Amino acid sequence: MIEGSPLRADAQRNRARILDAAEAIFAEFGTRASTEEVARRAGVAIGTVFRHFPTKDDLLAAIMKRLLAQLVEEAGKRDLFTFFTHLVAQAAAKKTVVDLLAGSGVDIRLPDAVGHLEEAVGRLLEQARAAGAVADSVRLPETMALLTSLCQGALHGGWDQQLQARTLTVVFAGLKRD
Amino acid sequence: MIEGSPLRADAQRNRARILDAAEAIFAEFGTRASTEEVARRAGVAIGTVFRHFPTKDDLLAAIMKRLLAQLVEEAGKRDLFTFFTHLVAQAAAKKTVVDLLAGSGVDIRLPDAVGHLEEAVGRLLEQARAAGAVADSVRLPETMALLTSLCQGALHGGWDQQLQARTLTVVFAGLKRD
Amino acid sequence: MIEGSPLRADAQRNRARILDAAEAIFAEFGTRASTEEVARRAGVAIGTVFRHFPTKDDLLAAIMKRLLAQLVEEAGKRDLFTFFTHLVAQAAAKKTVVDLLAGSGVDIRLPDAVGHLEEAVGRLLEQARAAGAVADSVRLPETMALLTSLCQGALHGGWDQQLQARTLTVVFAGLKRD
Amino acid sequence: MIEGSPLRADAQRNRARILDAAEAIFAEFGTRASTEEVARRAGVAIGTVFRHFPTKDDLLAAIMKRLLAQLVEEAGKRDLFTFFTHLVAQAAAKKTVVDLLAGSGVDIRLPDAVGHLEEAVGRLLEQARAAGAVADSVRLPETMALLTSLCQGALHGGWDQQLQARTLTVVFAGLKRD
DNA sequence: TATGAATGAGTATTCATTCAT
DNA sequence: TATGAATGAATACTCATTCAT
Lengths: 178, 178, 178, 178
Description:
Helix content of chain A is 74%, strand content 0%.
């Protein structure tokens, strides 16, 4: 990872381009889009994609990992409620994460990356509880469950601004007192 | 149902067997499972599947319709909270409905069947509101949104009994007062 | 063939309806059209078609036979040149005959029916020769060859009135003196 | 041809093998023969055929183009009458062109390639007219019409040497004076 | 005899993956 | 290491033909 040889640098650049392309393609056409399409968008040959990610699932897993890391980063900048709101609003844009978290036939397990997100949300939850913004009885598992559920619902349901707000209102009320 | 000819009876039996097989196969392997597999499970030739459902999408739509009708029927027997609980508990068994309601790339439009379910939930909501079990401000759209969200979450998240209960507790609290 | 039982009459009527339907369908969509389509147009079940014509080729052969018989009848009412002109003009309408005479992958042999047409054209040729309208050296084989060639050309080339006339002018001039 | 990479050479070789195989297969069995059969004869996998020709129609169009180009080349070496004679004699060998020019349900448009052939025949016609071998009133459209008609007739009629000669005699006489 | 449901081999096409250059 | 051509299993769908009713 700290290799400085020019070839490695090229390879790293290709890896990044492929990930970018894959994220865009899968977000636009779903994970059924072909790897060839990803290669085309990335401007590399198909063989290069498979050299970096021996399997399509490996490629999908890599995207997930990156997207989850971004979420963790975003979580660090917000409180629980704005993070929730932000995620739900962005669900469509993050189609790939949501879909992959949802399973969609692809077998991907990223305990670490998911674990990191869970930890980040856990911190937000503790802060919120400490501030009295969330009932004491609320635990992390159901918070995560609600988060992923709402993201999937928002993504596939095509919720408009108003529906997002109304739905979050109910959930937030539930988190405050139950 | 008005048909009395024996041949029609055979055809109806096959149609039902194909639907049963398709429901099972798609629930187990996702909607990407092959039509051939469905035929095999149904114990009919592939041509028979396509005679009954000229397109794979037609087959998926037929499953959806049947599953949604079952939901509507179940809704008639329960109050809002037990219906919610029941659905979430059954999410995995109804994988196909949930997936199809969620989109998953398949283009299926069943406004009628979905509309019927929405109406049924609407009735449950009104009863709950009338009984003071749900806040006046809660409307049907967010109720449906929560329902589908939780089903997707439960399905893909593999929630255990306890997680289901805890998550529903939050949502029910939110519905009662927000 | 002289059976008078009502069932036979029904069967004969069905046979005729199937032939009519087949002629129409194959003329419109080519011989690749499905037998099912023919049955639909004829208003009978697919099984009935196969009872009358055990094979699709049998059905095609039967159409051919009937169409050729019509040609023979028309030949009896015309002289060589007007028969030629008439046939070429009708080529598109008689798509099926032309196509089948042309082979199109279907293996059909109708020596008798073709023979009858050949005899009819032979008679026209003799008359024309006797009237000095055609050179003595012109024989039947090349006359038939020209007839079928022009029909195929007209059919597939989509000749307009003018092109038909110009092409026939050349051929007729060749028949008169060579 | 400007490409120097060895892989490109391999691909070109395969492309040519596929075209050769397709020409042979379609000539022998008609355009209904399967693409799989073509791949088998070419000694490549089915995917390779579709990589080069994304659609069966694309493959057929490519064959046509090549065959038509050969005809144009042959036209350059002959006068109108020997070209006619040559084409008719070769009709069976060029089954695919003839069939495709004739339509046969396949939707292929090659205005350029066909146009080139028409131009070549046009030049032969002018030469023949200039030499007084063809009547002044004969125009290109009917010349082409006769050419294609006779090819189709010869192909499907299975004319022997003698019949070819006799038929051409009539047509040539018609071209000389009409 | 008519019906039309069932059969199943066959077809074009796609796509993850391999491998020669 | 990158390329992109080749592979071939898989998939949705068609259609001539059979056969139970």
